[in-house]
Specification:
- It contains ten helices and eight strands.
- Strand 1, helix 2 and strand 2 form a beta-alpha-beta unit.
- The relative contact order is 0.16.
């Protein structure tokens, strides 16, 4: 198995989001995703216990690259990195977080949805950004427009991505990977139906391989 983030995303360009408060369920969810072929995991920092769940995944699983999402401040970025986060994702573009990650060599995917935000990211030295919320920000047509102008930029559309439109995003050369929570449905996690999560991961990998 390849070891770098870029190699993993080239092999399986889908990043599932885990938003689980319970550390045990977070670990089992991550293991189920890994069993389905998705080894790059984003744990979203949307609750007080999310970072603890990320730490548990890092400590109790093997072969996964685990990052922190919904990182809002540079102090939070420093905290999740201290806990072992291997990449950082934010809903928007914050210069201080970008500079910190660039200085530390940490992959950073800030949320962008306008040409001005993409250009700002480019000026800061970033070449990969999140496109969020993808479905509300113009979807595939907007990404095509961005790609014609920002030729060096690559995008990770997240928000409104699902099995029904995954291939439409992944067929674009400028799309690095797609992120989404459809791979970790709350009802399946709540009842411990981890086989469903593995099946969704396998389906996403199959779709990705059919277009790349």
């Amino acid at each position: 198995m390849s070891n770098t983030l870029s190699e993993r995303l080239a092999a399986a360009p889908v990043v599932p989001l885990i938003g689980e408060n319970d550390a045990v369920r977070a670990v089992k969810t991550a293991e189920a995703l890994g069993a389905g072929g998705l080894s790059v995991i984003e744990v979203v920092m949307r609750s007080d216990d999310a970072q603890r769940g990320m730490e548990a995944i890092l400590a109790e699983t093997e072969g996964l690259i685990v990052g922190a999402g919904t990182v809002l401040t540079v102090d939070q970025a420093k905290s999740v990195v201290a806990s072992g986060a291997e990449f950082i994702v934010s809903p928007g573009l914050v210069d201080d977080i970008a500079r910190y990650c660039l200085d530390e060599g940490i992959p950073f995917f800030p949320g962008t949805m306008t040409a001005g935000e993409v250009q700002r990211a480019y000026a800061l030295g970033l070449r990969e950004v999140k496109f969020f919320p993808a479905s509300l920000a113009g979807g595939v047509p907007m990404l095509k427009a961005f790609s014609s102008v920002f030729r060096e930029m690559r995008f990770m559309p997240t928000g409104g991505v699902s099995t029904s439109n995954l291939s439409e995003f992944l067929v674009l050369p400028s799309v690095l990977a797609c992120g989404g929570s459809w791979l970790t449905p709350k009802d399946a996690v709540a009842v411990g139906d981890y086989s469903k999560i593995t099946n969704l991961a396998e389906e996403a990998v199959a779709i990705a391989r059919s277009v790349r």
